[in-house]
Amino acid sequence: MTHAELVKRAERWLLGHGCAFALTELVVIISPGEIPDAIGWNGPISTILVECKTSRADFLADQKKSVRRIPTGGLGRYRYYLCPKGMLQAEEMPEKWGLLWAYPKQVRKIKESEYFEDTEWQGGLKNEIKMLISVIRRAHLRGLLPEICAPLNMSDVK
Description:
The chain is an alpha/beta fold.
């Protein structure tokens, strides 16, 4: 299973688990040193981050990132690793992180994520808002805001 396939699966999983929308591999200049594989919003300050790993070496390298060692500034109030079935185990997960396994036809939650508190706006929530502003700014620069901001027809809402 390729990284791109896992990212697509992560996006579908987020959308199927209460997220109104999800972004994948969004590069933002003001990012906190991470480019999230997939992040979804299921409330005003409730986000779910999914990091996709295709190898154990990639997972171990990820643990060395400063945002992993000091998690208060990281993205996602809930955080998961997604990997092919059996590649990583629940007991290997960093504190509070959950684990998802990709099976051939589904993604299964192996370990639940705990909530990552960010009550002092230490960076995580602030950076999530910066990501959203970046997306809106891109839509503005491309002339898409009038269409995006137009009232929705109820037939458009799924």
